């Protein structure tokens, strides 16, 4: 479980770094698939991880 947590943390940090390079319009632009926008997808992933770890 620790390995999975570490991997997910690393990937999430890479997403956050990448998102810092993109302007607000691109982050919130509605898209087809997923949760609708890059930002909503990122929040969804973080929320799912939180729910998993809090069990």
Describe the protein's architecture and organization.
One of its GO terms (molecular function) is metal ion binding. Belongs to the DinB family. This is DinB family protein. Keywords: Metal-binding. It contains 3 helices and no strands. The chain is flat, with a radius of gyration of 12 Å. Helix content is 75%, strand content 0%. It is mainly alpha-helical and 55 residues long. The longest helix is centred in the first third of the chain and has 19 residues, at 2-20.
Q: How many strands? A: 0
Secondary structure tally, helices: 3
Q: Uncertain runs with pLDDT below 50, 5 residues or more?
A: none
Number of domains: 1
Give the C-alpha Rg.
12 Å
Query: What percentage of the residues does DSSP assign to strands (E)?
Result: under 5%
For the biggest sheet, the summary is: none
SSE succession:
HHH
Distance between the termini: 12 Å
Structural class: mainly alpha
Task: Give me the secondary-structure topology.
Elements: H1 2-20, H2 24-28, H3 38-54
Helix pairs in contact: 1-3
Binding site for a divalent metal cation: 44
Pfam family, one: DinB
Keywords: Metal-binding
Descriptive key words:
single chain; 55 residues; DinB/YfiT-like; DinB; metal ion binding; metal-binding
Please summarize what this structure is.
With 55 residues, this protein is mostly helical. 75% of the residues lie in helices and 0% in strands. InterPro entries: DinB, DinB/YfiT-like.
